[in-house]
Amino acid sequence: MKELEDRIRQDGIVKAGDVLKVDAFLNHQCDVELFDHMGAEWARLFEGVPINKILTIEASGIGIACIAAQHFGNVPVVFAKKAQSINLDGEQYSTTIYSFTKKREFPVIVGRRFLSPGDHVLIIDDFLANGCALEGLIAIVESAGATVEGIGIAIEKGFQGGGDKLRERGYRVESLARLVGMDCETGELTFA
Ligand code: 5GP
Prior knowledge:
Layout: H1 2-11, E1 13-15, E2 19-21, H2 32-45, E3 53-57, H3 60-69, E4 77-82, E5 92-99, E6 104-111, E7 120-128, H4 132-143, E8 147-157, H5 162-168, E9 173-182, E10 189-191
Parallel strand pairs: 3-4, 3-7, 7-8, 8-9
Antiparallel strand pairs: 1-2, 4-6, 5-6, 9-10
Helix pairs in contact: 2-3
């Protein structure tokens, strides 16, 4: 999506350790008009796919998922919560996710009330790097007996391999901007 690529070139900052900072428009200050265009693009890409729920993970996914939902007939948005510990009371689906940015594992939970076997889920997130966050979200959807209909990502860092692994497993991953190279010395960004 050219508008997103242009914005990344304009306001993105390449940090050491393969981290791209996009807090000027995506995950700290939010450009809601851009989010709206992203939602429209996912809706175009997933046209005809039966999606009745969007799943994301707090915090950065929530804003983009909520705006995107408006393009999918205002389907409910559920976000996985990062928990202090896994509470095994049977009320929640839970898994553990390794955080690329925080370099540690943390438990995530989704209330069982909000995911059912009949659900057809679109997973949305801001970034796809190694794929750990998505693997966790997929595990939660599948443990609910629901169906992952697709995955919508704002920025995929293709050189980190997570997207390819998921595509090989048969998931449909639609990334609006796909980086194939990123140089933290020059700040140069290369899109697919
Ligand atoms: P993965 O689990 O695919 O390795 O990483 C995805 C998660 O890590 C995303 O939910 C996102 O919050 C965070 N993340 C990964 N790479 C970046 C990055 O370059 N910049 C920012 N801001 N977040 C990232």
